[in-house]
Amino acid sequence: MNIKLLVPVAALGLAGCATYGSPEAGRFDDADFGEANRITFSAMVVDPDPQYDTPMEGDAERAVNGIEDYREGNVEEAEEVRSTELNSGGS
Question: Does residue 27 surpass a pLDDT of 80?
């Protein structure tokens, strides 16, 4: 059989399997389209009025001082720490 004829016939045969309206494949519901995107987006939205069961712990004054020091440039530069060494050459 000629390959030029086989490819279109196979493509048409496989296209027949894509029946969204069949009971076996389930129905395509427009209302459900994009549901994963909506759920993901809603998970990224910050709650403007969060309610917590226990009070939050921490030192707010220390946090404010740290932010002010950063904005004014009064912070120490972090030193570079290498976790690996690059060796050139062979054995």
Answer: no
Length of the chain, please?
91
Half-sphere exposure of 55 (CA within 13 A, CB side): 3
Q: Is 3 helix (H, G, I), strand (E, B) or coil?
A: helix
What counts of helices (H) and strands (E) characterise the chain?
3, 0
Report the Cα 79 to chain-centroid distance in Å: 31
Question: How many angstroms separate the CA atoms of 90 and 59, rounded?
Answer: 54
Average pLDDT for residues 10-27, to the nearest whole number? Answer: 60
3-class secondary structure per residue, 41-80: HHHHCCCCCCCCCCCCCCCHHHHHHHHHHHHHCCCCCCCC
Q: Which residue has the higher pLDDT, 57 or 9?
A: 57
Give the pTM. Answer: 0.29
Task: Write down the pLDDT at residue 18.
Answer: 54
